[in-house]
Design brief:
about 140 residues; mainly alpha; two-stranded antiparallel ribbon; 6 helices; 2 strands; about 5% strand; PBP/GOBP; odorant binding; secreted
């Protein structure tokens, strides 16, 4: 699971550091100065960190309030189609299920639980491509 956490965090934060993405990051960080983005993958993340995540998701169009937008999530996680899943339909169903099970009273908690659920779904369903070539 650590591999998938690193990959998703890399996608999240490498994308963030370019142009408008950087502006989104800075704006959300100003709103939630206590946020620790490196702690997003922790179940015990601070409220500021969870709200930072929700802020970013809203700015990227991934969420509106408590609602995650499945197609946007799919494009965000697999923008170029390089990721391969054991069963694409099962993975999409898992992501849809994450929307249902992640709803909480606080939108920040919803975003965080949704993120963790999608992260777990990736780790269960992604085909890990190994380099089998010999040198």
């Amino acid at each position: 699971m650590e591999y998938y956490t690193a990959v998703l965090l890399a996608v999240l934060f490498v994308a963030v550091y370019s142009g408008t993405q950087r502006d989104f990051l800075q704006e959300c960080k100003k709103q939630f100065p206590g946020a620790e983005p490196k702690d997003i993958q922790l179940y015990s993340a601070s409220n500021d960190t969870k709200c930072f995540l929700h802020c970013y998701f809203e700015k990227k169009g991934i969420m509106t309030g408590h609602t995650a937008h499945e197609d946007t999530v799919m494009k965000f996680i697999n923008p170029d189609g390089r990721r391969k899943f054991i069963d694409e339909n099962k993975w999409r169903k898992d992501v849809r299920n994450c929307v249902t099970i992640s709803k909480r009273d606080c939108v920040c908690d919803t975003a965080h639980v949704y993120y963790l659920c999608v992260l777990e779904s990736i780790s269960r369903n992604e085909k890990v491509q190994r380099n089998n070539s010999t040198t």
